[in-house]
Predict the structure.
Amino acid sequence: ETAMAEATALRETEKGVYDKYMAESSTNLAALNKAITAVEKGMSAGFLQTRSASVLKAFLSSSKDVMDTDRQEVLAFLSSKEGDEYAPQSGDITGILKTI
């Protein structure tokens, strides 16, 4: 009986961790898709002012699965403001975002 209760408690803890991971992943994926769509449509300036841009920036800043050069390129893009000197090729940014 004790073993069953311990196993149940462990599974509930694992489910909580999994649910949190899935929620974060869904949010990050949605932000990524919005970024790709905005850049492909030439509307990146508007996207940069959205919550999705902030979510994507936070994800990239903490992700260990993204190469440093790609991370720096996209973060520079996400940090740019209208009129900034930074002007990446939208194809480069879109390609990086699609590989993440």
